[in-house]
Design a protein that fits this description.
single chain, alpha/beta, Rossmann fold, six-stranded mixed β-sheet, four-stranded parallel β-sheet, 15 strands, 41% helix, elongated
Length: 442
C-alpha cells in the first residue's frame, strides 16, 4: 500500500535488505550476488534500498532466522534510516515473520521475504485474466499460514493477551473465531480461484488442441529473468511486446508465428523468466502456464552472456526445466547481449559448458540468421523419416508434405507421387495409408 506525506504525495518506500548465509549449505549465488538480485527485485517493485544487513550462521534461528544480536542491530538500522520495509532474501516462516515484527514494534513497518516481494512484482505485471488469477491464487496460498498478525489488535482492544489459556474471556474466543472465519474465507477464495483457473485453462487447452491441428512446430523461449527473451521475440517476429530492463518485465506467455529460412513456419512462445529461489507458491500456481514449455518441440535457452553470474543463472534454469519434466526436449543454447561484452566473446567457462551455443545480440539484431537456421535444423531433426506413395487423386497430400515437411526425394510413376522425407510427428497419422518402404533409421 502506498505511503503518502503531509501533502498527499506518494513517498518511495525505503527498504533494508537482510541476507543470511548458512555454512555448508550449497547455494546457486554467493550472498552478495543474491542481495544484488534482491535489490533489483526491490527496485522493480518501486522500493528504494537504503541499506543491507548480512550474517553467516551455522544454522538459522528457528524464531527469527538471524541471531539475537543481529536482530537488535536490525531494529537500530530501521529506526536510524527511517526504513519502511525490511526484506529478507530467504523465505520466512510465519513464526519468524511475527517475531521480527514484534521486535521492531512498529506495525507501520512491513517485514517481507523474497517470496512476498516476487508475488508483489507478479501482481503488478499480470495483465491477462489467467495471469491475474494465478498471482492471486499464489498470494492467498502464501498468506494463509500468516494470518495471526492480522488479529493481534484484539488483544489491545480487550486489554489482554490474545489466544492461549490465559487469554481471558472476550479475547480468546473472538480472536480464534475471527481467525477461523478469515481462514475459511481465504480457503473459499482459493477454491473459487482454482475453479476459475480450471475454466481458463480449459480454454487454453482448446487453444493448444487447435494449435496442434495446425501441425506447426513449437519453439519455447526460456531463460533467467532479464536475459532478453522478449527482445529476442520482438527481433524474430512482429511481436511488438514491451521489453524493459527490469526483472519479470514479461509475465504472461506470448505466442507468435516464426518465419524460418526455408519458407516454413513455426510458433514461438515467450515464457516467464526464471529466478533462483522461485517461490513454490508461484511454481504451483503458474504450472499450467509453465507447461506451455512441455508442449514445445525444442527449447531455446537464452543466456545473458554479459552477466557475471551467467553460468549460475543457466544452471538455475536447467534445474527448473528438469523439475517441470522438460528434460526430454532438445535445447538450443543462445548467448545473448553480445554487444555488451568487451571483445564480443563470452567467458571461457560459458564456452566450455556450452560449446555449441549461438552468439547473438537480440537488441542489435546480430546473429539472428544463424539462430533461425539452427532452430530449423533442430526442428527438422525432430521430424520422423517416412516414405509415401500418394495417388494423383490425392494431390492435396503432396502439397501438405511440401508445406509442412522436408522433401528429400520425389519421384512420379504410374501410380502416383513417391516422396521420401520427414514429417512432423503429429502429422504422421494422416499419411499412414500412403506409407511404403518405411525406414526409421535413415
Amino acid at each position: 500500500m502506498p505511503i503518502y506525506n503531509a501533502n498527499s504525495q506518494p513517498v518511495i518506500e525505503r527498504s533494508l535488505l537482510v541476507g543470511v548465509e548458512i555454512k555448508g549449505k550449497p547455494i546457486p549465488f554467493n550472498l552478495r550476488d543474491s542481495l544484488d538480485e534482491l535489490e533489483r527485485l526491490a527496485e522493480t517493485a518501486g522500493v528504494r534500498v537504503v541499506g543491507r544487513l548480512t550474517q553467516t550462521l551455522k544454522r538459522p534461528n528457528p524464531a527469527t532466522l538471524i541471531g539475537k544480536g543481529k536482530l537488535e542491530e536490525l531494529v537500530g538500522i530501521v529506526r536510524e534510516k527511517e526504513v519502511h520495509v525490511v526484506i529478507f532474501d530467504d523465505e520466512l516462516s510465519p513464526r519468524q515473520q511475527r517475531e521480527i515484527e514484534n521486535a521492531i514494534g512498529d506495525e507501520n513497518i512491513k517485514v517481507l521475504d523474497r517470496t512476498a516481494l516476487i508475488l508483489d512484482i507478479f501482481a503488478q505485471h499480470a495483465h491477462t485474466k489467467e495471469g491475474a488469477l494465478q498471482v492471486e491464487l499464489a498470494q492467498y496460498a502464501y498468506r494463509l499460514p500468516r494470518l495471526t498478525k492480522a488479529w493481534t489488535h484484539l488483544a489491545r482492544q480487550a486489554g489482554g493477551r490474545a489466544g492461549g489459556a490465559s487469554g481471558g474471556v472476550g479475547v480468546r474466543g473472538p480472536g480464534e473465531t475471527q481467525l477461523e472465519i478469515d481462514r475459511r474465507e481465504i480457503n473459499r477464495k482459493i477454491a473459487h480461484l482454482k475453479r476459475e483457473l480450471e475454466r481458463v485453462q480449459a480454454h487454453r487447452e482448446r487453444y493448444r488442441t487447435k494449435r496442434r491441428e495446425s501441425y506447426l512446430p513449437v519453439v519455447a523461449l526460456v531463460g533467467y529473468t532479464n536475459a532478453g527473451k522478449t527482445t529476442l521475440l520482438n527481433a524474430l517476429t512482429p511481436a511488438n511486446m514491451q521489453a524493459e530492463d527490469k526483472l519479470f518485465a514479461t509475465l504472461d506467455p506470448t505466442t507468435r508465428k516464426l518465419h524460418l529460412p526455408s519458407g516454413r513456419h513455426a510458433l514461438i512462445t515467450d515464457t516467464v523468466g526464471f529466478i533462483q529461489k522461485l517461490p513454490t507458491e508461484l511454481v504451483a500456481a503458474f504450472r499450467a502456464t509453465l507447461e506451455e514449455i512441455l508442449e514445445a518441440d525444442i527449447i531455446v535457452h537464452v543466456i545473458d552472456a554479459s552477466h557475471h553470474n551467467a553460468l549460475n543463472q543457466a544452471v538455475v534454469v536447467e534445474e527448473l526445466l528438469d523439475d517441470l519434466g522438460a528434460a526430454h526436449i532438445p535445447v538450443l543454447v543462445v548467448f545473448n547481449k553480445m554487444d555488451m561484452l568487451l571483445g564480443g566473446r563470452p567467458s571461457a567457462e560459458l564456452l566450455e559448458d556450452y560449446p555449441q551455443a549461438t552468439s547473438i545480440s537480440a537488441l542489435m539484431k546480430l546473429g539472428l540468421e544463424k539462430l533461425l537456421h539452427n532452430i530449423e535444423e533442430a526442428l527438422i531433426s525432430r521430424m520422423r523419416p517416412i516414405q509415401v506413395l500418394i495417388p494423383y487423386t490425392h494431390g492435396e497430400f503432396v502439397d501438405l508434405f511440401h508445406s509442412m515437411g522436408v522433401v528429400e526425394e520425389e519421384l512420379h510413376d504410374n501410380e502416383g507421387v513417391i516422396i521420401k522425407g520427414r514429417l512432423p510427428r503429429p502429422l504422421i497419422g494422416r499419411f499412414e495409408t500412403f506409407e511404403v518402404g518405411v525406414n526409421n533409421n535413415y
